[in-house]
Design goal:
The protein has an eight-stranded antiparallel barrel. A hairpin with a 4-residue loop joins strand 11 and strand 12. Helices cover about 10% and strands about 60% of the residues. By secondary structure, it is mainly beta. The longest helix has 18 residues.
Length: about 280
């Protein structure tokens, strides 16, 4: 004789009730700083410059950089303890992973024919701009917690990071387009470049890992104060540089741009960060 649906439901509810009684349910919320691990310096060479003056050789090279900078992390989660020391944790974190641009420079040096002296100079092409949306990973973890009023907890598991919106722009020196021998002045053409993470790119990896550990302190009753350090790891995203404007270029500028595009490294951004948080948890 097949068991009735009522009997199955009653048995399931009874089992769930016994598990909750044995382990418990924990709700938690937290806040703290983030520490991203992104740092990248770009050096590029637009190639040789042809100056229509015999005996003149011009060398040129540009550089700029972007650095990760910490922001604020917020989050909340729920843990269902199958037994008092072992639970399944579902959590959502939202971290402000900022990127700070560093001013770009373009170095030029020229070997001039005697009696003219050789010279070198550095041109500042300015700092870029960065727009990046907060990283919001969703995680499912296995969590272990020691018993007692002061408890040590450790958890880790899989994380899912929705599309990360990231746009970087930076002006670069295209190269020397003019040289004043009498004044030792150079004319450097500049152009804005743009690197963008496309939110709907199917090649981007969304799955990652997280792991963390911390201490919990009982405040009496069902309330606990805790501190937690956690590391999030995701696959890198590759951003390729393209032009940021559509102004007309001279034939020389077009040639220099092609050289830069072939030699400038892509942006390799990995949304990996560490966060140190504190918060409150209530158990049932």
């Amino acid at each position: 004789m097949k068991p009735s649906r009522i009997a199955i439901t009653t048995t399931a509810l009874s089992l769930l009730s016994s598990l909750v009684s044995a382990g418990g349910l924990e709700l938690a919320g937290w806040v703290g700083p983030t520490f991203p691990f992104y740092d990248q310096t770009f050096r590029y060479d637009p190639g040789l410059v042809t100056i229509p003056i015999p005996g003149v050789t011009v060398r040129q090279e540009g550089s700029f950089a972007f650095h990760g900078r910490g922001g604020l992390a917020l989050g909340g989660g729920v843990t269902f303890y199958v037994v008092p020391v072992l639970g399944i944790e579902a959590r959502v974190d939202t971290a402000d992973v900022k990127i700070q641009p560093e001013a770009g420079f373009f170095d030029v040096s020229a070997d001039l024919p005697p009696p003219l002296p050789d010279f070198s100079t550095q041109v500042t092409v300015g700092s870029g701009t960065v727009n990046v949306r907060r990283a919001t990973p969703f995680s499912v973890n296995l969590k272990l917690r020691t018993p007692g009023s002061v408890a040590f907890a450790v958890s880790g598991g899989l994380s899912y990071l929705p599309a990360l919106d990231l746009v970087l722009t930076q002006s670069v020196g295209l190269g020397v387009t003019g040289l004043g021998l009498g004044t030792n002045e150079v004319t450097v053409a500049t152009l804005g470049l743009r690197a963008e993470a496309r939110p709907n790119d199917p090649e981007e990896g969304r799955l990652g890992l997280n792991a963390g550990a911390g201490l919990q302190f009982s405040l009496g009753g069902k309330l606990r104060l805790f501190g937690d350090g956690r590391f999030f790891y995701f696959k890198k995203q590759t951003l390729v540089w393209t032009r940021a404007d559509n102004r007309g270029l001279s034939p020389l500028e077009e040639t220099l741009l092609r050289e830069i595009e072939s030699r400038l490294e892509p942006v390799e951004f990995r949304p990996t960060f560490f966060q140190a948080t504190a918060g409150l948890a209530i158990t049932f």
